[in-house]
Every structure is written in C-alpha cells, then in structure tokens.
Amino acid sequence: MSIEVRGVTKTFGDFVALDNVSVSLPRGQLTALLGPSGGGKSTLLRIIAGLDTADSGSIEIEGVDATRLPAQKRNVGFVFQHYAVFKHLTVARNVAFGLEIRKRSKREVAERVDELLSLVHLSQFAHRLPAQLSGGQRQRMALARALAVEPSVLLLDEPFGALDAKVRKELRDWLRRLHDEVHVTTVFVTHDQEEAMEVADEIVVINDGRIEQVGTPDQLYDEPANDFVMGFLGEVTTLGTVKIRPHDIAVSPTPGLAGAIRGTVDRMLRVGFEVRLNVHTDQGQDVTVRVTRAQARSLGLVEGSEVWLTPAPVGLHAVLVSSMAGATPVPPTP
Amino acid sequence: MVELSTPVKWLLRAVALGYVFMLVAWPVALIVQQTFADGLTTLSDTLADPYVANALRLTAVIAFWAVVINVVFGVTISILLVRFEFPGKRLLSALIDVPLSVSPVVVGLALLLVYNGRTGWFGPTLESLGYQVIFNGPGMIMATCFVALPLVIREVVPVLTEIGDDQEQAARSLGANARQTFLRITLPSIKWAVVYGLVLSLARSLGEFGAVKIVSGNFTGLTQTATLVVEQKYQNFEQEAAYATSFILAAASVLCIVVVSLLRPKESHS
Hints:
heterodimer, A: 334 residues, alpha+beta, six-stranded mixed β-sheet, 10 helices, elongated, disordered C terminus, B: 270 residues, mainly alpha, MetI-like fold, globular
C-alpha cells in the first residue's frame, strides 16, 4: 500500500470534516476521492499532503509514518485547483523550484526541466511568465512542477475544477495517459462522478466526513453499497417500490409485460441524442425515464401518450438501450 | 466611466488643480524660489554651516535606522496579521493605526515618561546599564519608528491578503522550509509593496518634527535634526538657511518617490 490512512478525524469548530476515516490507497494506481462539496475529500487530501493536520489518526506514506512530518518532508507532489503558480518566475523556473530547493546541479535541473516541459507539451513556453499561459497550460505547468521532485505520491485537489468544460475533458484524457506513462501513485479529488469514472482505477466515495464505498468504477456503478452511492454516481428514479436508473426502464406503448405500471407522459425534453421523459403513473408517482431519440420516435411518444413502464431485465435492457454505449444495467434491488 | 458634460468636466478639473496648487505646488515652489533667489550661494552657505550639516547627517542616520527597523517589523507584523490566527489579533491591528491618529507630540511625551533617565519606568535601569535613550539617538529613532509604524504595514497587508497562501503552500509541498518559502516566494510577491512602504516611511522619517523635538531635547549641534534646525533658523531670522534646509528635505522626499515610480514596472502585479 502506498498511502495508509488510519482513523483520521478532523473538525473545524463544531463542523466534523472527517469522522474516523480509514482507507488504503494502493501503489501505482490512479485513485479518485469523489463526493459532494463539503464532504471532506479535499480535507483528507490536504491532511495526506501535510497542508492540514488531523485532530487524531495517522498517515503512512510508502511505509513511513508521516503523521508528524511537515509538508516539505513528505515528498508528495500537490496540484491546487487554482494552480498556485509562482507568478514572478518563468515557466521553467516554476518547474525547477523543487529541484533548486534540493540543491541539484544546474545541468541536472536544466535537463529535468526540459524533459518535464516536453512531457506536458510546454517546451516552447519555457521562458514565459505564467500570466501569459491559459488556464489549462498553467495547470499542466503545475503538474510538471509537482512531478519534478519525483514525489512518492501525486495529489491533485480538484485539478480541473477551474477550467472550462472542453479543456477539462482534454486534460482529463491527458492525465489518464500521463499516468499510464509515469505510473506514480496518484490521488485526485473531484465532485464530478463522470470525471472520476472516466479517469480513475479506483474510486473512494466520501460524504459527510465518512467513506461510503471504495471500489472500481464498475463496482460502484453496478453494485452501489447504499442509496447515497447509487444516487451520486448517476441519476436515480423510483418505479413502484424499486430504485432504478432512468435509462434502465423499458417503455412500451402496450401493457405487454406482467407487472407493467401504467402512466402518461407529462413532459418530454430532448437533450442531444437522448430524450428525458417525465411519466406520471396511475399510482400518482412521477418517474423519470431516459430513452434514445430513435426509441422515442419508433414508440411514437408525445406529451400525453399512454405508456407502460417496467424495470428492464438485463437481457432485454441490453437490446433496448444498445445505442447507449457504456451504460451497464443495475439489477433492481427490492 | 460616468459621462459628464464638458463644462462640469472642466469645472471639476479646475477645482482639483486649484486645490492642489494652492495647498501644495505654490508653497513648495516658493521654497525653491527663496532657496535659489541668489543662485547657489544660499544653498552652499547653508551647507557650510556646521550645525546644519550635522543636523542633516543626524536626520539621515535616524531616518536610515527607523526605516530599517520599520521594514523588518512591518513585514513581520504584516505576515503575522494576514497568515496567522491568534487571540488579540484585532487589537494588534487597531493599535497599529494609533500613530496615524495620535499627535506626534503625545508620542514624544509618552516615550519621555517611559524612558527618561530620572523618573521613567525603564529609564533609570537602562541608564545604570549605560544606555541613555532620551536626549539621545535611540530615543529619536524610537520616536521616528513610532510615527512611521503603520506605513509599511498598511502597504503590505492588502497585497499579502490578495495573493493568498496558495503559492506558499505549493512551495512547502515542493520541499521549501519557512525561510526558503519567505525568501523565494513571499518576498518577491510583496516586493513593490515593501518598496512603497519603505519610501513612505523614509519620507515620513525625514520630516518628523514633534515627537523628535521632545525626546531629543533639541540640543544644537548634538541632537538637532534637520527639521529642528529649520525651526530654529527661522526663529532666529535666518530665513535663507531655513528655506535652503527645507528645500533639501523636500527634494530628498520627492527624489525617493520619483525614483520608485521610475523603477516600478508598468504591470504592478508582479
């Protein structure tokens, strides 16, 4: 294990940010700490980095007890949401900072900086000031700076949070590829479940200062440990007595299947390739359903249509929503 | 930007310019005019006066030490105020503004009460150890420090607040200790605020009169600073010498401000 967190508690006044949290993060993996804002995930990351101290509990990094080590002795790379670039230093000097502190020879520093700048595709900006870079470039520079000192773990606190959607997507893919090249144990904090599922090998879901579940993206999506995890990783609606994802509901214009629930389409909203339906059932329930555009058209759905809803059985579901790549059905839990 | 009609614009300009002209530009120009009324003779005669020369030297020494002490303590207190939480922080912040609101004469008297050699709180003890504070250099430096105390702090605190502690945390995580973080990251970021505070302190220190007059005892040729010489010369009907000394004091302050505005880069957020 690369990082061992044991029984960490942290309070700010009477607000409990972390409540007796224990988790092991394996070596060489890309782990996401996922959860809603104020859930304690950033606090946990900062405690691992030594930027905050825990009230109780211990932190072990690469087998060394780091609980009482100051941040500068933990050999962790930290990337901040708002980049935290050194504004008065050029890009190259920013990246060189950690090496200069470690008194490496001029030649070694220059070589390493060159290498890292080409890794993050910023070689041609080496002599610019950070103010002349875009947000995405600044964050890549911050990443190179953190990697320069060859940290035993790399910690990223909402690294793409301040970037616009398109750049965020690019950097996300790029981080994944970078990790596959560099293999440093990486932990990043995010509140975006899509980001976590796309990038991470393993996800730790944190809410209200507690860990809700740890697992691979597939495990969390397919076998959520509780309602919170199920709700946080994707949209959830209630059909009859069953909690289900809106795209796992089969829609039929006729009462074909036993146990189908009858309702009328209240509202229809088309977003890109999918259509979101709000179905008002005869029992007075409002159910959210997602179908593809093609399905909506072939079923002839309009507002006011009468429909029958059933939880899609795994086999049937796969056929029905084959156009929705990557969506895996959740077996309905009673 | 608010659009103003042309007459209003001209009126506002005239009022602002007139105000500054009547209060600052004209009186200062008259000092210059008086100093150079007969070429350089007044200036060179005044500088040849050993009492004036000594007073100018004393002012320079006192201003130098007061500025050095103020910059060191000013930056330290600013970091304390912005980066740390401690009980009494708001009280400290309020106390720092006291020198701006209290008359320097009061400051001088207060120092006298604490440090005078016969009845002061500390004075007799210090004097028995061989340190004379009042009527001597240290007292004058203390008085000058006191009046210029807020100038560095009020320049540095807003800048420290604005830059936040992200960069400092990043430096820490990259292995820098407190000293390295301060020298490599914090100080370069607040550089221009410190320089501005320094110049303001220097100008204020050169011109200090009230507090220094009380704690110095105003002994001619010994503890008389340039401002005190100006007063004495003026009262002794040696107006030319008074004007010339005033000119030198004003020129030194103006020079500081000009040099800094030339040095300071166009983009102040460096």
